Amino acid sequence: MKLSDLPRRTAATVQAVEDAAPNDAIARRLRELGFVAGEQVEVLAAGPIGAEPLLVQIGFTRFALRRAEAARVRVTVEAEATA
């Protein structure tokens, strides 16, 4: 599942950040910010117009991400991981 598709207030774990193109600067920056495999992530809120940006919490840090940026992050929902 993509982070952009994750329902609000649902705990998930990052699987990977996918590059949209070779040497993807946005994907690299997301990894630098802490979007790495095994980290807990949650979508806290979405903006009023087109549900953009998304307010995302990873660890104790919150980020505002565009949906296109959040779509690069693959996650597993906690219920799926334990099933």
UniProtKB/TrEMBL annotation:
Instruction: Tell me where on the tree of life, at the top rank, the source sits.
Output: Bacteria
Task: Show the Gene3D superfamilies listed in the entry.
Answer: 2.30.30.90
Q: Which UniProt keywords apply?
A: Iron
* Residue ranges constituting the Ferrous iron transporter FeoA-like domain according to the UniProt record: 1-77
Q: Looking at the keywords, is Iron present?
A: yes
Q: Name one GO molecular function term.
A: transition metal ion binding
Return any one Pfam family short name. Answer: FeoA
User: Cross-referenced PANTHER family, in alphabetical order?
Assistant: FE(2+) TRANSPORT PROTEIN A
Q: This chain belongs to which protein, by name?
A: Ferrous iron transporter FeoA-like domain-containing protein
Organism of origin is Vulcaniibacterium thermophilum
